[in-house]
Amino acid sequence: MTLIARTRDRAVETLSLDSPHNRNALSAALVGELADALTDAGKDTGVRAIVLTHTGNTFSAGADLKDPPPPEALVALLRQIIELPKPVVARVTGHVRAGGLGLLAACDIAAAATDATFAFTEVRIGVAPAVISLPLLPRTNPRALARHYLTGERFDAAQAQATGLLTTCADDVDTALGPILDGLRRSAPDALAETKRLLTARVLEAFDRDAADLTALSARLFSSPQAREGMTAFLERRDPAWVV
After folding, report:
1. Residue 35 belongs to what domain range?
2. Residue 109 within any structural domain of the chain
3. 47-83 burial string, b = 16+ CB within 10 Å, else e?
4. Residue 3: what pLDDT?
5. 178 domain-assigned
6. Residues 62-76: tens digit of each pLDDT
7. C-alpha–C-alpha distance, residues 51 and 87, integer Å
8. Who contacts 241 (Cβ-Cβ below 8 Å, separation ≥6)?
9. Which Gene3D superfamilies match (predicted)?
10. How many domains does the chain have?
C-alpha cells in the first residue's frame, strides 16, 4: 500500500500523506516512504518546489504509537526537508498534532485553513516534544510556544501563525498559496537553493548541536513508566493516572 501520493503541476511536486485510516500518523513505513519521495523530488530537475499536504481531515496525528519510527529516523526526515535544495511548502486543511508539528516547522513555508487545529499533545501522554524541537525552537516565538508545549492545549490557525508555526492562514488555503507557488515558479533554481541555505543555517546549527541529546531524551521518555501509562490510557480512551 502506498502511503505517499504524488502529483505534479507546472514544476510543483505535491506529496500527500495518504494514510487516513490512522490520521496520517508517523509510522516507520510512512516516514521511510516520505523520505524516499523527497529524495526523488530533490534530484528531479523538473521539480522547482514541493508541496507537502495530506488526505483526510488530519495533516498528521503525530507518532504512530503502534509502529513508531526510531527517533533517529524522524531526525533524519526533518533534516532532509530542511536541507533539500528546493523549497518545501506545507498545505494544511485539517488537524495537526504532536510530531506532525515537527513536519510543519521543517517546511520553508506553511499555510493552513482557518479551521485547522493544532496541539502539542506529548505532555499528556508522558513524553516531551524533544526531536521536533530541532526545527521548532529556532523558528517560533518562545513565549507563545511555552504555553502550547506545557499544557497540550488545542489552538487555532491564527494562534499558530502568531507563534510562528504558519506563514499564513486563510479560509481558502489554495487561494492563499496561489501567489506563493507562482513566485517559486518564477525563481531561478540555483538562487532558490542558495536562498534557502541562508534561511536554514541557524536551524541546521540546532541539529548539529542538539540532535544527539534530544534523540536520547526522546528514547528515554518513550520507554518510561509514565509514557507506558499515558499511551495505554490514550489507546483505552481514558485519563492517565496522574490527572487530578
Report:
1. 4-172
2. yes
3. bbbbbbbbebebbbbbbbbeebbebebbbbbbbbbbb
4. 97
5. no
6. 999 888 899 999 999
7. 8
8. 229, 233
9. 2-enoyl-CoA Hydratase, Chain A, domain 1 (3.90.226.10), Lyase 2-enoyl-coa Hydratase, Chain A, domain 2 (1.10.12.10)
10. 1
